[in-house]
């Protein structure tokens, strides 16, 4: 799997759905120079684990907005499937109330560019195109900075839901580094002491111990 961290986020233009509207030409480029982006993939609309994640992102949307972060979801479903799911009440398995954009990657090209596409397409000796598994997205998540650079990525298998708290923690760590030039050690939380990016600073953080 290619690592996108430190590289420009792949550019795309696709249809998306936000609230009641279908957006014909959606792109993450609209956020360049303005906002960070948490761009996450999920396998399918109208499933079981996926709505728990989408609702959780919505519940924490104000926390992302406080940090100047745009949240954008994506799956290989069509814009019409997204629209129908958004118009299905939560108690019936829908995601009614989700207000951030959902990108329709029906051609699978976005998932492929971000290298989160499951399934193995092959062509047999007779020239027949077949797929082993399903061509749907794994649970990929990418934190993209205001310059369009990927600063964090994580990919979970289908059964494994993600942690919104960890996502927010990484956003906080990136923004702390950008503001203060201090690096954030393991399990760092906002408000914790960070480390200067030199030997002396590391030594000070460790209480003067070398090593």
UniProtKB/TrEMBL annotation:
It comes from the Bacteria. Transmembrane segments: none annotated. CDD domains: PRX_Typ2cys. Keywords: Oxidoreductase. Gene3D superfamilies: Glutaredoxin. Coiled coil: none annotated. The keyword Oxidoreductase applies. Residues 3-176 form the Thioredoxin domain. Thiol-specific peroxidase that catalyzes the reduction of hydrogen peroxide and organic hydroperoxides to water and alcohols, respectively. Plays a role in cell protection against oxidative stress by detoxifying peroxides. InterPro entries: AhpC/TSA (IPR000866), Peroxiredoxin (IPR050217), Peroxiredoxin_AhpC-typ (IPR024706), Peroxiredoxin_C (IPR019479), Thioredoxin-like_sf (IPR036249), Thioredoxin_domain (IPR013766). The gene is ahpC. PANTHER family: THIOREDOXIN PEROXIDASE, THIOREDOXIN-DEPENDENT PEROXIDE REDUCTASE, MITOCHONDRIAL. Belongs to the peroxiredoxin family. AhpC/Prx1 subfamily. This is Thioredoxin peroxidase.
């Amino acid at each position: 799997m290619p690592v996108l961290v430190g590289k420009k986020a792949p550019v795309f233009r696709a249809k998306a759905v936000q609230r009641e509207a279908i957006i014909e030409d959606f792109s993450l480029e609209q956020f360049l120079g303005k906002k960070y982006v948490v761009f996450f993939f999920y396998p399918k609309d109208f499933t079981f684990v996926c709505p728990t994640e989408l609702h959780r992102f919505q519940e924490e949307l104000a926390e992302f907005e406080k940090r100047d972060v745009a949240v954008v979801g994506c799956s290989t479903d069509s814009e019409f499937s997204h629209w129908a799911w958004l118009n299905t009440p939560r108690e019936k398995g829908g995601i009614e109330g989700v207000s951030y954009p959902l990108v329709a990657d029906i051609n699978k090209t976005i998932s492929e560019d971000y290298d989160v596409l499951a399934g193995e397409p092959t062509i047999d000796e007779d020239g027949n195109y077949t797929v082993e598994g399903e061509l749907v997205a794994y649970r990929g998540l990418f934190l993209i900075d205001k310059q369009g650079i990927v600063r964090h990525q994580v990919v979970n298998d289908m059964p494994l839901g993600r942690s919104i708290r960890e996502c927010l923690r990484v956003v906080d760590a990136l923004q702390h580094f950008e503001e203060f030039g201090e690096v954030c050690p393991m399990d760092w939380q906002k408000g914790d002491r960070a480390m200067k990016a030199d030997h002396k600073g590391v030594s000070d953080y460790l209480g003067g111990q070398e090593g």
